[in-house]
Amino acid sequence: MYMKICMTNISAVDRDPLERSLFHAYQELMDESWILRFLVILFAYSTVGIPAFFVVRYIQKRYRRFDTDECRRSCLTSFLVRFSIGLDRKEYLPVATTGDAQLLSKDSTLTAVSGEQRFLKDCFALGFCFFGIQSSLIVMGFLQERLMTQGYRRISDDSEAGGVVVEEKFGDTQFLMLMNRLFAIVIYGTYIFYNRRRQPAHVSPYYVHSYTSLSNTMSSWCQYEALKYVSFPTQTVCKASKIIPTMIMGRIVRSEHYNIWEFINALALAFGASLFFLSSSHARQSSSAASSDFGMTVSGLVLMAGYLAFDAFTPNWQRSLFDTKPKISKYQMIFGTSVFSAIFCIVSLAEQATLFSSFDFFFSHDGFPRDVFLLSFSGAVSQMFIYTTIERFGPIVLTVIMTIRQMLSIIVSTVYFGHEMTIYGAFGFLIVFGSIFLGNYRKYVRKSAQK
């Protein structure tokens, strides 16, 4: 009696010969051109986005005034108005009173003590967010690799009677993203419902969360696609330097102003991170292996530019929503983004005819629902820490935390597997943390001087 492991792809199961030939021809055509894959995704999203755009424009033109009785005729009309226009912001803005002015003048006499306490609270909150992001994303990355690489046995498989265990491999990342978003919808939707009295009024229109969902999805897609065309050193340098695009996008999206020292500090941090990544043994091996491909092709350059642009837009747009008055809570933002992401994933999977087959795989394979649940839970937890970081510290700090996460993973790998750490890597490591320390020190010195 022997054990035999068979890895099959879910998309090629149970197809007749003609359908298999057409499917393989379609797959070969899709594999040859990333532009075609990009257009297919855009077409899937446009089937939702274009009708929604015309609905929003129609509602905005018809219901320009918030006090019209037509807005309250039915639940559907009320929802469409909330989706397209939102609420009247003037009704929810706080009105300053004499008591508020007295409290403000009283608080101004305690700036020295409150400033020190605020610094300690910020340090504790930043450390808590840093630990939460690192731990949740490490677990999430492990589970993603586990789900995409190992096989799962079908429940009550008849092949066990013959001594053969058939394991099928799941390969649809969009379905995993869908389950992640559905889990977040249930968790944060339940929290918002039971704490609805503590939640601020969602004044902004609902459709604003679709931008976050779309940019987040496209940045992940560009990153994965770029791996097919870009060498490892090139991609690591781009990732290490994304603090610069984040600052540029902050100027475009939020009209954020940065002084010359902040740009110099960002350049030093990007240089130190790039030097650290390029000095690792894995980067040098990848560089020598990819030298025959000239490091970066035009396709890789375009995809990495798309990744940096989308990835820089996402936290800046989220921060702009946090800056609105009255502000949106992070729970509302996670819930809204998850709803739109789930809609995009469902439409894309349905148009690719893999929605029902993915759910069939989910319910018919042993151990797969457990791993998907753990992946979704870690993803929901990571979103909580990420949104908290953006809300309290801004997108630049989140970008720095993500860069440090990559550096720590290389350090752990170097220590555990006994890889070599060069003097250039140690120097780059010192530059990064020196830049972070000096940047934060100058920030608090400037705030203290202003007070």
Overview of the structural elements:
This protein has 451 residues and is an all-alpha fold. It folds into 2 domains: 16-85, no CATH class; 117-284 and 292-450, no CATH class. Helices cover 73% and strands 1% of the residues. It contains 17 helices and 2 strands. It has helices at 17-32, 34-62, 75-84, 98-107, 111-149, 173-194, 209-226, 232-240, 243-253, 260-279, 281-289, 298-322, 330-351, 355-364, 368-393, 395-417, 423-450, and strands at 151-153, 167-169.
Q: Helices and strands in order, then pairings?
A:
Elements: H1 17-32, H2 34-62, H3 75-84, H4 98-107, H5 111-149, E1 151-153, E2 167-169, H6 173-194, H7 209-226, H8 232-240, H9 243-253, H10 260-279, H11 281-289, H12 298-322, H13 330-351, H14 355-364, H15 368-393, H16 395-417, H17 423-450
Antiparallel strand pairs: 1-2
Compact overview of the structure:
The chain is mainly alpha-helical and 451 residues long. Helices cover 73% and strands 1% of the residues.
